[in-house]
Specification:
It holds the Pfam family ABC_tran. By secondary structure, the protein is an alpha/beta fold. It is built from 10 helices and 10 strands. It is globular, with a radius of gyration of 18 Å. The mean pLDDT is about 95. It binds adenosine-5'-triphosphate and magnesium ion.
């Protein structure tokens, strides 16, 4: 559980378009790493390269290395489906399966992976995953009702429960709170704090307060202009990025002077 990721010299393409260029970084286990930067600089693209979701787009490819606890995720012997099981993902818009029950939503990913589960096993996994996502108390009396009947913040926590039910080592979250109200946002931030003792967490956010509240390390990406590749400008512990960055562009961005 909770693995270290080392990225070296990663270039990420959509066909001929180089969207992200030359990224090297280390992502520490049992910590939260935030990706920040202006729209279009490649945060989501880079995030998706960490669990081999990028290549599902026709023509999309990467060059370089992503190594997780010593294993090259792009090695020829590696099955991308295994990578996606180990490195889970939560998206911007909560996307529960609307007609499936709350319990079946939690089990959806796990059922794809495992042989048949006994009912008691499935019940335990539903409870522990919903507990882990801080949602159990709110839904324990309506586990057989549709997932679509929950509030937006509850649906996002349901998606987190679905992701952790697969027992990943790493959780990638792409702007997980951008569709949520402030109270639900704080609930997700509390949850992220709790989850980091068990997982490596990477979160993309446009909310500077959120990055400074939840993350241990922050990576600032930028883009020189339309059609140019996004690049990692600087990465350091979050306090340093927000109070004493080395690059002027970082300082301008975190102080709200651009982007
Ligand atoms: N499926 C795709 N096909 C072709 N180009 C794409 C695709 N997805 C993203 N891009 C391009 O890659 C670049 C980086 O996009 P990306 O979505 O990673 O940026 P981002 O930093 O996540 O932006 P935002 O903050 O708006 O979410 C952009 O130029 C974008 O137009
Ligand atoms: Mg994005």
């Amino acid at each position: 559980m909770s693995k270290r990721i080392d990225v070296s010299d990663l270039n990420i393409y959509y066909g001929d378009f180089l969207a992200v260029e030359g990224v090297s970084m280390a992502i520490e286990p049992r910590s939260v790493t935030a990706f920040i930067g202006p729209s279009g600089c490649g945060k989501s693209t880079f995030l998706r390269s960490l669990n081999r979701m990028h290549e599902v787009i026709p023509g999309a490819r990467v060059e370089g290395k992503v190594v997780m606890d010593g294993q090259d995720l792009y090695g020829s012997d590696v099955d991308p489906v295994d990578v996606r099981r180990t490195v889970g993902m939560v998206f911007q818009r909560p996307n529960p399966f609307p007609t499936m029950s709350i319990a079946e939503n939690v089990l959806a990913g796990a059922r794809l992976n495992s042989k048949r589960m006994r009912k008691s096993e499935a019940d335990d996994l539903v409870e522990s995953s919903l507990q882990g996502a801080n949602l159990w108390n709110e839904v324990k009396d309506r586990l057989d009702r549709p997932g679509a009947g929950l509030s937006g913040g509850q649906q996002q926590r349901l998606c987190i429960a679905r992701a952790i039910a697969v027992k990943p080592d790493v959780l990638l979250m792409d702007e997980p709170c951008s569709a949520l109200d402030p109270i639900s946002t704080l609930a997700i931030e509390d949850l992220i704090q709790k989850l980091k003792s068990d997982y490596t967490i990477v979160i993309v956010t446009h909310n500077m307060q959120q990055a400074s509240r939840v993350s241990d390390a922050t990576a600032f990406f930028n883009i020189a202009g339309t059609g140019k590749p996004g690049k990692l400008i600087e990465m350091a512990d979050t306090a340093t990025i927000f109070s004493n960055p080395t690059q002027k562009a970082t300082e301008d961005y975190v102080s709200g002077r651009f982007g």
